[in-house]
Write a structure and sequence with these properties.
Largest sheet: 7 strands, mixed, barrel
Bound molecules: alpha-methylisocitric acid, iron/sulfur cluster
Distance between the termini: 42 Å
Strand order of the largest sheet: 21-22-23-24-27-26-25
Helix content: 25-40%
CATH architecture of the largest domain: 2-Layer Sandwich
Structural class: alpha/beta
Radius of gyration: 23 Å
CATH topology of the largest domain: Aconitase, domain 3
CATH class of the largest domain: Alpha Beta
């Protein structure tokens, strides 16, 4: 029986376990990446592990999220990360170099290698044929310390691409289509593997757009084969030596299949407030827009931005529209400065902002009240832009650029405008933004600790009896942005959990943190896909700090479930989803004989007020049980 590419790479990296869905495996991790907003926790945890040397082949610490530096907090975090990077042999990418995923693709990604990143969009590396997985910060710290990562064995979905995209339709429309078909929870526990004739017509950066936004499917990761296009991309970055050809066997057997005919796709958009709320631009119609934002790790590649520049050349941005563009990397920005593309954008009236995440994580450029904002990003959760009542639509760079000129959402295919094709370019390697840890180590480099950097909260051994008051009854698809919001006001406090905890769930329920403090021990009731979105472990650490003992939900998103377990908070799934409706705020719950029940993998939650008992599904692996009993991953490692 033939093998999928995903399983071939996993097999090459297998340290423990067997590749059978349902089980758990430990794999060797070749590379890690961190970014600054999750990175401070990663490096606090790495320091707490007191290791001599990291075990990965390459680890990079990028600074790209928190670059506004409105106060000392951001800059102190950067200095902290830089100092720990120097102590442990981690490369440090200075702010201004660009967005971690774009930079990693350009400079370090290697087909067939494994990459673990403290950011949910790490699967961008799948565009190069890597197994690139997003994880919580602690998992990444442990991967650096031990060189391994454990995960439930994913199933593999085959997405077969046939045909060829028409002008004005691009990679973003492919992933939007896949999201429309599979939804934001369709990828949970699965790897999405792209195959078929259509793959050949997609460049590595097109593929990376697709694997990047595979995060929105909830997938473990997504990947493409490594072929001639991979070779020419690596060559264009001066890295042809890193090329290896990789593909699935012709008779590979997949768990599920989806066929996409590229020739039949049209420009699409994800409507507010979910990336899977997809419709065609034509159907949505010519709605009036106030802002267009082009960039983010999904759509800030050289070809994406060159297409934008060509569309804007000689044109004028509509008077009612503000267009902001954030290039993905310093190399891209510099190439566009050299070839005049930047001038086309500026002359049309675009605002060029830093090579960083910027507006994608609410760091500036919040749209006006009630605005319609078109963004080439990957998430349009309510309030993420920094404006609670704004409507954000996710679109391709082509759709964004033409709409910025017209002032209304525009289907480029219908507009009849010309779209020139963009030739591939070679880039001159430039590592002037990289600080190498040469000659530095633990003995000659001090940790730089700004006053805003506070110790991370730690749990205790799981007690025999767990009591908790219901402090929130939440709906379906709760995001980690809902749990621990992030914007220019809060991002500077990512290394200060006690402060951040005051804002936990603030967009959904202003009184949440006060209620938790009063209850002392709390439980959350959740719907389907609880904790989707960002990998931020702050969405587990702030609840831990506020005394949350367990979350009882219909289902969990992958990374958040791990983050809860890593923090010693129990993620429990209703055996009968209808039980969800029988709970209300303020009721007291108890798990008796909790340690034994966790060991038995069946946990019964009792409602003290109604006397009713609820069986839950745990799906705990042996490692999960160790962590939960010890009160989290750090305690379990210490043991
Ligand atoms: C995001 O896109 O939500 C982020 C900000 O990049 C997060 C990481 C974070 O919250 O710091 C992610 O995707 O993991
Ligand atoms: Fe940055 Fe946005 Fe990408 Fe997250 S999704 S890494 S915030 S650009």
């Amino acid at each position: 029986m033939g093998k999928t590419l995903a399983y071939k790479i996993l097999e090459n990296h297998l340290v423990e376990g067997t590749l059978t869905p349902g089980g758990e495996i430990t794999i060797k991790i070749d590379q890690t990446l961190t970014q600054d907003s999750t990175g401070t926790m990663v490096y606090l945890q790495l320091e707490a592990m007191n290791i001599e040397k990291i075990k990965t082949e390459l680890s990079v610490a990028y600074i790209d999220h928190n670059t506004l530096q409105t106060g000392f907090e951001n800059a102190d975090d950067h200095a902290f990360i830089k100092s720990v990077a120097k102590r442990h042999g981690v490369l440090f990418s200075k702010p201004g170099n660009g967005i971690c995923h774009q930079l990693h693709l350009e400079n370090y990604g290697i087909p067939g290698k494994t990459l673990l990143g403290s950011d949910s969009h790490t699967p961008t590396g799948g565009g190069l044929g890597m197994i690139a997985i997003g994880a919580g910060g602690l998992d990444v710290a442990v991967a650096m310390a031990k060189g391994t990562y454990s995960l439930p064995v994913p199933k593999v979905i085959k997405v077969e691409l046939t045909g060829k995209l028409r002008p004005w339709v691009s990679a973003k429309d492919i992933i939007l289509y896949v999201l429309q078909q599979l939804t934001v929870k369709g990828g949970v526990g699965k790897i999405v593997e792209y195959t078929g004739e259509g793959v050949k017509s997609l460049s590595v950066t097109d593929r990376a757009t697709i694997t990047n936004m595979g995060a929105e499917l909830g997938a473990t990761t997504s990947l493409f084969p490594s072929d001639e296009n991979t070779k020419s991309y690596l060559a264009s970055q001066g890295r042809e030596k890193d090329y290896v050809e990789l593909s699935a066997d012709a008779d590979a057997v997949y768990d599920e299949e989806l066929k996409v005919d590229l020739s039949s796709l049209t420009p699409l958009a994800a409507k507010p407030h979910s990336p899977d709320n997809v419709d065609s631009v034509k159907n949505i119609g010519e709605i009036k827009i106030n802002q267009v934002a082009i960039g983010s790790c999904t759509n800030s590649s050289y070809t994406d931005l060159m297409k934008v520049s060509e569309i804007l050349k000689g044109q004028k941005i509509h008077p009612d529209v503000s267009l902001v563009i954030s290039p993905g990397s310093s190399k891209i920005m510099s190439k566009m400065a050299e070839n005049g593309a930047l001038a086309n954008m500026i002359n049309a009236g675009a605002r060029i902002i830093e090579n960083a995440c910027g507006p994608c994580i609410g760091m500036g450029q919040s749209p006006e009240s009630g605005a319609v904002s078109l963004r080439t990003f990957n998430r349009n959760f309510k309030g993420r832009s920094g404006t609670l009542d704004a409507d954000v639509y996710l679109v391709s760079p082509e759709t964004a650029a033409i709409s910025a000129i017209k002032g209304v959402l525009t289907d480029g295919m219908i507009s009849g405008c010309n779209l020139p094709s963009i030739p591939e370019e070679n880039f001159i390697p430039n590592d002037n933004f990289i600080v190498y840890p040469k000659g530095t180590n633990k003995n000659n480099t001090e940790v730089s600790m700004g006053p805003n950097i506070k110790p991370f909260p730690q749990n205790k051994n799981l007690p025999d009896e767990l009591t908790a008051t219901i402090v929130l009854h939440a709906g379906n698809n709760i995001t980690t942005d809902d749990i621990m919001p992030s914007d220019s006001r809060l991002l500077p406090y990512r290394s200060n959990i006690p402060y951040l905890a005051n804002f936990c769930f603030e967009k959904i329920d202003k009184d949440f943190s006060t209620r938790c403090k009063e209850a002392k021990e709390g439980a959350i009731i959740g719907g389907e896909n609880y904790g989707q979105g960002s990998s931020r472990e702050h969405a587990a650490l702030a609840p831990l700090y506020l005394g949350i003992k367990f979350v009882l939900a219909k289902s969990f998103a992958r990374i958040h479930r791990s983050n809860l377990i890593n923090s010693g908070i129990l993620p429990l799934v209703f055996e009968n989803p209808d039980d969800y409706d029988t709970f209300s705020l303020g009721q007291k719950l108890i798990i008796e004989n909790a340690r034994q029940q966790v060991k038995n993998k069946i946990v019964i939650v009792k409602n003290i007020e109604t006397g009713k008992e609820y069986r839950t599904i745990t799906n705990f692996s042996d490692l999960d049980i160790e962590m939960i009993l010890a009160g989290g991953k750090i305690n379990s490692i210490k043991k």
